[in-house]
Write a structure and sequence with these properties.
Residues 4-64 form the HTH tetR-type domain. GO terms for molecular function: DNA binding. This is TetR family transcriptional regulator. Residues 27-46 bind DNA. The chain is mainly α. It has 2 domains: 1-46, Arc Repressor Mutant, subunit A; 57-200, Tetracycline Repressor, domain 2. Helices cover 75% and strands 0% of the residues. It is built from 11 helices and no strands. Helix 4 (49-74) runs antiparallel to helix 5, helix 4 (49-74) runs parallel beside helix 7 and helix 5 packs antiparallel against helix 7 (112-139). The chain is elongated, with a radius of gyration of 20 Å. The mean pLDDT is 94.
């Protein structure tokens, strides 16, 4: 097992403590004590507790952006892209479940300077989804009457809410859940030609 760095220990400790006690219920002194480091070690890696909370968000949003861009670039058709991009999105909600839960519960306490950076990255992700929906409409895979922005927000909202109810030891894996999400999304936006492609690619749930 790889030994954790001081920065990793602080982050992991903060995740546990913020989840248990809430952001305002935890002090830097407590984080330092549980992480078995010093205040000097803390401030060498994070300038403040706010910066630590921001890092919790940045860890998972950076992975979302990286994997979503890879999905967009490495798949051919808009239908393949949107399916792969959704798997990239839900992967993060599985692997980084603690990060996401803590941030969604506590992120409101961040100062505006951090929120601005976060909003920039979220906007970048939103534009990637909008682009693939727009591509699909132009390509004839997605219905021309759908709203690109509303479809994008519906997709993001569908996944975002999973942090409230998804359990890693639950009856369905995140991969199985994502196949349901993709089925719901595709059936709502594809044209007849798009439907045939989705069937051929086995991207729909068929009884």
């Amino acid at each position: 097992m790889t030994k954790q760095s001081v920065k990793e220990r602080i982050l992991e400790t903060a995740l546990d403590l913020f989840h248990e006690k809430g952001y305002h219920g935890v002090t830097i002194d407590e984080i330092v004590e549980v992480a078995q480091t010093s205040k000097g070690g803390f401030y060498h890696n994070y300038k403040s507790k706010d910066a630590l909370l921001y890092e919790i968000h940045d860890v998972f949003i950076s992975v979302v952006l990286k994997k979503t861009k890879e999905a967009y670039d490495t798949h051919e058709t808009p239908i393949e892209k949107v399916v792969a991009m959704l798997y990239a999105f839900t992967y993060v909600f599985d692997y980084y479940q603690r990060h996401i839960t803590v941030f969604y519960n506590e992120g409101t306490y961040l100062p505006d300077e951090y929120k601005e950076v976060i909003n920039e990255k979220r906007t970048e992700y939103q534009k990637l989804i909008e682009q693939v929906i727009s591509d699909g409409v132009k390509f004839g895979s997605f219905r021309k009457e759908i709203s690109t922005s509303m479809t994008t927000m519906a997709i993001i909202g569908l996944v975002n809410w999973t942090y409230k109810w998804y359990r890693q030891n639950g009856p369905m894996t995140m991969q199985q859940i994502t196949s349901y999400f993709n089925d719901i999304i595709l059936r709502g936006i594809v044209t007849k030609e798009g439907y045939e492609e989705a069937l051929k690619q086995q991207l729909l749930i068929i009884e």
